[in-house]
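Hey, quick one: can you model this chain's 3D structure?
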Amino acid sequence: MNDIVNEIIAANQRIKSVRGGVRETPLDLAGVFSERTGADFYLKGEHLQNTGSFKLRGALNKILGLSEEDRRQGIVTASSGNHGMATSLAASIAGIEATIYLPESVSSAKHEKIKRYGAKTILVPGNGVEAENIAHATADSQNRTYISPYSDWDVIAGQGTVGLELAEQCPDLAAVYVSVGGGGLIAGIGSYLKEVCPNADVIACWADNAKALYHCIEKGEVHEVPETRTLSDGTAGGIEAGAITLPICAQVIDRYVFISEDEIASAMRDMADCQYFIIEGAAGVAVAAGLKDASRYKGRNIAVVVCGRNIALETFLSVMKSGT
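Sure thing. Here's the predicted structure for all 324 residues.
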């Protein structure tokens, strides 16, 4: 096996060995979706993970792998969403200090969730990019570890444990659908499955309004990509210069599926109506892609990674109402 697969195996043992850490999430057959597509349609429940998303896997693996000196110095990151919550909890589990930079525009609900897990938060004027720049600079000046949400080998290995669980739960998997933002999740899952389940298609799912990494892959380099507002805010945003996910994703992704805002909203309503789950827009992208594409795998097993559930109640209710 290649090095990244061995790192994923080690990460799986590490992040599940601590109290309050990562749990193995279920892979459940969705009967209505199976009937609709003709495939055996499975949902990988990362929305049921601690903190409500897959992000705890990568953040905890990174933090648990730090040296004692790095732990004493503490860690820094920037995120107003799932990565921020995950890093805050991971630092609490490891007993180290975490400082998380947030844009001043962050919602009070998200801010409170991040603080609830124990991190110190600092509000920064401007948007998320400004928060990331200041967090990077602060980490460098204070000799503290900056934890990227995706462009870090340890974070990718942690996210790759989703692929490890999928291979164990469904060895004859034909395809997996994964929503893509910075690419850490699909880079980890794809790296593992290409080695262990090489016949499984790794399918990248993007919101039409937020395809930054897709365009970077097409061009072969990181560049600025304009995006418009999307329900999939968890996958929106540009790609940082030098992102290590770009070459990995270019290698492990087999196909792309693009999803409209109406399709995201419809998938969120389907999950609430048929599965009784609240999911966020980023998870709706992968569910919609599976519903749109899985008929090509009739009679075979496909999995959709339901990446998270952290959505403002008013936004969720608005999506539900829009379908009436």
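One thing worth noting: The first strand starts at residue 27 and ends at 29.
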